Amino acid sequence: MSIHPDLDQPDGRDMSPARSAAFMDSYLDALNLVERLHRLLLDVIKDEFERVGLLEINAVQALLLFNVGDNEVTAGELKSRGYYQGSNVSYNLKKLVESGYMHHERSEIDRRSVRVRLTEKGRGVHVLITRLFRTHSEGLMDRGVLDQEGVEDITVALRRVERYWTEQIRYIY
Q1: Residue-by-residue DSSP string for 85-100
Q2: Number of neighbouring beta carbons within 10 Å of residue 102
Q3: What is the per-residue pLDDT for 7?
Q4: Mean per-residue pLDDT for 27-40?
Q5: Average pLDDT of the segment spanning 45-71
Q6: DSSP string over 128-173
Q7: 161, part of any domain
Q8: Long-range contacts of the stretch 77-86 (C-beta < 8 A, 24+)
Q9: What is the tally of structural domains in the chain?
Q10: Domain for residue 67, yes or no?
């Protein structure tokens, strides 16, 4: 089997320096975009809270409430889902319990484990965020920003990156 001079790999993948550098540039752009999008999401939630006069909780806490939804979960489960990087999940859960947005209860089996679920007040925030996200999804479709296939393509690509990164963490040791 001969290897093309511009191809470093016998399987035909182009690993030329120019292509590798171009991919690296695109990869870094994508990483920056993901980070900016997360910060923008928090800003959008914060703006919605200011609009409706809900100033008692922050956007990260709102996402916690949204992601708990109708479930009863532990702090560890929320952390493992990875939604709250850069924030202290335990601190935010404590604040949400103190503010009446969540119930917490020690596990009968493992007293170190605390399970949380939304109160009526917490469900109200969940509904507010659900409406906000529904408005966004309809706006993206109505304005032709994204269609169903586009969202699915983005999701598939992001899941592949997530899987790759997860494998990197698992196999580094």
Answers
A1: TTS-HHHHHHHHHHTT
A2: 22
A3: 47
A4: 95
A5: 94
A6: HHHHHHHHHHHHHHHTTS--HHHHHHHHHHHHHHHHHHHHHHHH--
A7: no
A8: 84/60
A9: 1
A10: yes
